[in-house]
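Worked Example 4.2. Consider the chain below.
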Amino acid sequence: MTLRTAVVATYPPRHCGIAVFTRDLVRATGIQSVVALHPASSPAIYPLEVHHRLRRDVLADYRTTATSLARDGVELVSIQHEYGIWGGGDGSHVLNFVRALSMPSVATLHTVRRTPTPGQHRILVELCAAVDGVVVMSRAAATLLTRVYGVSPMRVSVIPHGVPDLPRVDPDLLKPGLDLAGRAVILSFGLIGPGKGYERAIAAMPDVVAAVPDALYVILGVTHPDLLLREGEAYRESLVARAIELGVGDHVRFVNRFVGPAELGRWLQAADVFVTPYPNLEQIVSGTLSYAVGAGKAIVSTPYEYAVELLAEGRGILVAPASVSSLATAFIDLLGDPAGRERMGARAYHFGRHMVWSEVGAAYSALFERVARSSRTSRVAGAARPLALAVLRPLPSGVLDA
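Applying the procedure from the previous section yields the following structure tokens:
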């Protein structure tokens, strides 16, 4: 990337999905500078590309950091937005930061709520008005921005969630190296915490095991760091206790590690079925579901908005959100039908080719260049801040409009 660009977000070694997304975005686009959002007390040692730390809850840092980026010669700032990663009520400090910038900016929205609180609504509206471009990861999110937040469609670009470019392989070839040999593997991964629906997937396992005795449900990931600070491992321990109580302790495995991209790829490739049993039907993006589609997995999911869009045209099975029996039936049907799993996975894999990071990175780079060029033209002409962009690159046919 010739355009000198910075990105502001959480960043590894922070354990969160946005941190991982940002790391991959940096690698895919060649972004030169990272501003790491972090708690004031964080002792984390960041990699060399992190040029600035922004203490999340120290308001003075926001203007200071914006000034430092200008002094560094940064020409465009990519802002990763989710309410919880920024300081202030509902993450309101993001507005102080954007307004202090002297260069154009693009906001990637990781959360767009259908029923926001008044504070959340105000912040997102003001953020979209203050930046020069807005990115969402689904058509449903783009439609919500227009209908609920009044954002002009001309200001919004749809770029899919990036995924690693994994080859499709026979899961049985990978299983021995992960101590999964001879097991029919159902996989979930991500940060552990309430709201993911793991309880329902565990509750489905007695019926699954009765039909498929070698079935194993793997929950891969560490407890969310914020939950860990508040409650320790109480939630994970409750899931373990529930599996034992149901008599499926040997059929539910917790892998309590935050794994790197290579190991995560092996777990995905070794899985026979992937599941996101999320109870929140307004969820507008899921990195874990994106990864499973990109890996060509047979997928079971509750019908939250992102899943409905991503799993259309036979790329997965949607089950009733509160129905343990529907989950169990879907698991049993897929585990008992290798040919059906292969067909479903192949459809997902073909669809996922436009989501690999090389494609997504190119789309972001083109967007950044276009926004910077438009901003330069406007400054020369003395015009007001331009409307940003229409959908930069349409999603393939078959993706549902909300």
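The first strand starts at residue 5 and ends at 9. DSSP finds 15 helices and 13 strands in the chain. Compare this with Example 4.1 before moving on.
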